[in-house]
TrEMBL record:
Gene Ontology BP, a term: shikimate metabolic process
Keyword Amino-acid biosynthesis: yes
Protein name: Shikimate dehydrogenase
Residues annotated as domain Shikimate dehydrogenase substrate binding N-terminal: 9-90
Annotated organism of origin: Chryseobacterium daecheongense
Entries under CDD domains matching the protein: NAD_bind_Shikimate_DH
Molecular function GO terms recorded: NADP binding; shikimate 3-dehydrogenase (NADP+) activity
Amino acid sequence: MDSNKKLGLIGRNISYSFSKKFFTDKFQKLMLKDFSYDIFDLNEINEVENLFSDPQLIGFNVTIPYKEKIIDYLDELSDEAEKIGAVNCVLIQNGKKTGYNTDAFGFEKTLLLHKKPHHTSALILGNGGAAKAVQYVLDKNGIPFQTVSRNSEINFENLDPATIQQHALIVQCTPVGTFPNVEDCLQFPFEWLSDKHLVIDLIYNPNYTQFIINASEKGAKTVNGYYMLEQQAEKAWEIWNFQKK
């Protein structure tokens, strides 16, 4: 009997994915010859139905723009995924499809590694699936936050110096500046940042987004999304491997 176990990543325009290399390297290190990890580039979320018909598929990661849309196709959500309203990891077991959110785990590890006592309130830039995981983690850690998006009360047009100065933690959750569009940068009043600020940009490719470069020029401490990405991937691996009954 063929015991190949397939994993992968669903998203749109995702040829640059970190996950494929991460998991392929992991399979080599652990000498797991029966595991494979593929990229499933879907134009529309309903194409995921084709994947579900593959009996060898035991799970997959989910990235932009499907972290919220995938929920309609699942049988069950973990507590965290339900509270967050976004899924980035799916386990398929005995035909049952369960959604998890390991972004929250990865972001929390990043936050606790770099946060200082004066980082008592946050600005979250963006309101997609990744921002929802960040909101959940900040809530969990008792850090009040305000969300800045195109349509929110505080938006990129009306951000003022006082708001920037009051929020020493800034988390950039939009895809603006991701490879290949590395010249792009969110409209943001960088001149009001100081060395008191911690700026976390969830993007990992490039290592230094234009947003991070601009923030660090003003003395802010900056962190990219690489460690979060590694940690969420490790957590996903745990879910796929240790849920097996």
